[in-house]
Design brief:
2 domains, alpha+beta, Alpha-Beta Plaits, 4-stranded antiparallel beta sheet, 7 helices, 177 residues
Length: 177
């Protein structure tokens, strides 16, 4: 089975440095096959006969902790999961191409979504659908007032964001794996 592992917060601002060649080698030694990485921000494609996503996440987290010495949040998606998230974007095609997909580890409950959805900023739009926050800002993510920490606190789960281009590339790479 092909999986996409999304690692949160590595190689950002000089923190939690993880060289991709070492990560590929580490995950291969941890029992995964056809391990590939895409850019330096924690996108890993791999194959495994393991069907339990929690076990895959735990194996990757433990391998990184043992080898690099720090904890990393890991979110595992199948190609089908990622395709569904991508296809479910509520934005127009033009906005979608400039949007971000904040994927949540757990689907939040309705009350948490209601509370999080009360906060709005002009020029920023988001919708929380199942386990993804579809986020668009005319100014771009780097200039927005929202950030993943806000949503993590309100929704009680961790999130990791990927832009449109990264999503397209991960879908393409995973189709070829």
């Amino acid at each position: 089975m092909t999986y996409i592992a999304l690692l949160k917060g590595i190689n950002v601002g000089g923190h939690k440095k993880v060289p991709m060649a070492e990560l590929r080698e580490l995950l291969t030694k941890s029992g995964f096959e056809n391990v590939q990485t895409y850019i330096q921000s924690g996108n890993v494609l791999l194959r495994s006969s393991e069907k339990n996503i929690q076990k895959i996440e735990d194996t990757i987290k433990k391998s990184i902790l043992d080898y690099f010495g720090f904890e990393v949040s890991v979110l595992i998606k199948t190609r089908q999961d990622l395709q569904q998230i991508f296809d479910n974007s509520p934005f127009s095609e033009e906005e979608k191409q400039k949007s971000y997909f904040m994927m949540l580890h757990d689907t939040p409950n309705a009350e948490s979504v209601k509370i999080a959805s009360q906060k709005v900023y002009e020029g920023e739009d988001y919708q929380i659908i199942n386990d993804c926050i579809y986020y668009y800002s005319a100014k771009g993510f780097g200039q927005s007032k929202f950030n993943t920490n806000f949503f993590e606190r309100k929704l009680n789960t961790f999130a990791t964001a990927r832009n449109y281009n990264t999503m397209v590339k991960l879908l393409s790479l995973s189709a070829d794996l």
